[in-house]
Amino acid sequence: MVAVWLVHVGQKLLLWGALSAVSLACATLILSFLQMMASYAYNWLQMRPIPTIPGAYPFLGHLLMLERGGKEFFQQLIHYSEEYRHVPMLKLWLGTVPVIATDKAETVEVSRW
């Protein structure tokens, strides 16, 4: 009689344990996603004043526009730097990572910290 009762309680405990594990995993994923979004938003706000090439997609940036081969990729960067020669810096988004390209040594500032 006691064994039947213990089996029923054990099943409930197993169900609650599984539900709590799934809930913990979901909460971890949601918090990681929110942290990634906050980091992306911070980078985007900090880099907003720097001119960029039009046509960037959210979270993908300019990756769909850039060539895949090494030589073609650098030829495309040279083309963009010549096209936007009038600006001191040019911003490209490679996924969620901003990349700054410059062709003038005067625009580089050395940080001393």
Spatial sequence of strands, sheet with the most strands? 1-2
Helix content: 40-55%
Number of strands: 2
Overall shape: elongated
Helix and strand pattern? HHEE
Structural class designation: mainly alpha
Beta strand %: 5-15%
Q: List low-confidence stretches.
A: none
- Radius of gyration over C-alpha positions, nearest whole angstrom: 25 Å
Rounded mean pLDDT score: 82
**Separation of the first and last Cα atoms:** 73 Å
Number of helices: 2
Largest sheet: 2 strands, antiparallel
Question: Quick gist of this model?
Answer:
This protein has 113 residues and is mainly alpha-helical. Helices cover 53% and strands 9% of the residues. β1 (90-94) and β2 form a beta hairpin.
Description of the molecule:
- 53% of the residues lie in helices and 9% in strands.
- The radius of gyration is 25 Å and the shape is elongated.
- It has helices at residues 2-47, 70-83; strands at 90-94, 97-101.
- A two-stranded antiparallel sheet has the order 1-2.
- The protein is mostly helical and 113 residues long.
